[in-house]
């Protein structure tokens, strides 16, 4: 097999990422997910704060 064919085969191989790369990618995704969830929860609480209070006797805690 000529050397040129060997080098072209190496270029087409897709190497699997290492364990550290996968763990880092998962950690970054988890952090982004937590930031988005906190942003959503904060915006929901702020919109609830602007809502008028429930009349007495109708709250679900009674």
List keywords for this structure.
2 helices, 0% strand, mainly alpha
Characterise the protein shown here:
This is Energy transducer TonB. The chain crosses the membrane at residues 21-44. It comes from Bradyrhizobium niftali. Keywords: Membrane, Transmembrane, Transmembrane helix. The chain has helices at 3-12, 19-49. By secondary structure, it is an all-alpha fold. The N and C termini lie far apart (82 Å).
Shape: rod-shaped
The biggest sheet amounts to: none
Helix content: 55-70%
Rg, nearest Å: 27 Å
Structural class: mainly alpha
Q: Give the rounded overall mean pLDDT.
A: 78
- In the predicted model, the low-confidence regions spanning at least 5 consecutive residues are none
Number of helices: 2
Distance between the termini: 82 Å
Following the backbone from N to C, one meets helices and strands in this order, namely HH
Number of strands: 0
Beta-strand fraction estimate: under 5%
Keywords: Membrane, Transmembrane, Transmembrane helix
Protein name: Energy transducer TonB
Transmembrane segments: 21-44
Topology:
Layout: H1 3-12, H2 19-49
How would you summarize what this structure contains?
Keywords: Membrane, Transmembrane, Transmembrane helix. The protein is mainly alpha-helical.
């Amino acid at each position: 097999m000529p050397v040129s064919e060997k080098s072209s085969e190496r270029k087409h191989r897709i190497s699997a990422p290492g364990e550290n790369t996968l763990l880092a990618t998962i950690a970054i995704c988890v952090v982004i997910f937590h930031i988005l969830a906190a942003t959503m929860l904060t915006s929901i609480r702020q919109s609830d704060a602007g809502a008028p209070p429930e009349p007495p006797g109708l709250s679900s805690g009674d």
